[in-house]
Amino acid sequence: MTIVLDAVTAVLFLAAACTLVRIVRGPSMLDRAMALDVLLAVIMAGLGTSAVADGVTWVMPTLLALSLVAFVGSVAVARFLTHHVPRPDEPDQGADA
């Protein structure tokens, strides 16, 4: 069982490292927001894996809270970016608007 746990841990660390690279490199704010959401999912997978390996149940409320934070954060970023990105069919109003 420890070989499987070590393999899962290695894969999760690799996923977290790749996600951190995407957060740093960008190129856009949407890429960074999506990478942050993926990083939260990787953290939740790690917590779930450790809960199964140790046989504890207190992690479930923590996972629920993290999933709610991830969802609300993703929705907030999406709403923020849609309100600040001009649509292609809108004319440019210049600096005086």
Automatic annotation (TrEMBL):
A Pfam family annotated for this UniProt entry: MrpF_PhaF
Organism name: Actinomadura violacea
Annotated TM spans: 6-24, 36-53, 59-81
Keyword terms of this UniProt record: Cell membrane, Membrane, Transmembrane, Transmembrane helix, Transport
Subcellular location: Cell membrane
Tree of life domain: Bacteria
Topological type in the membrane: Multi-pass membrane protein
Family according to the record: Belongs to the CPA3 antiporters (TC 2.A.63) subunit F family.
Listed name of the protein: Cation:proton antiporter
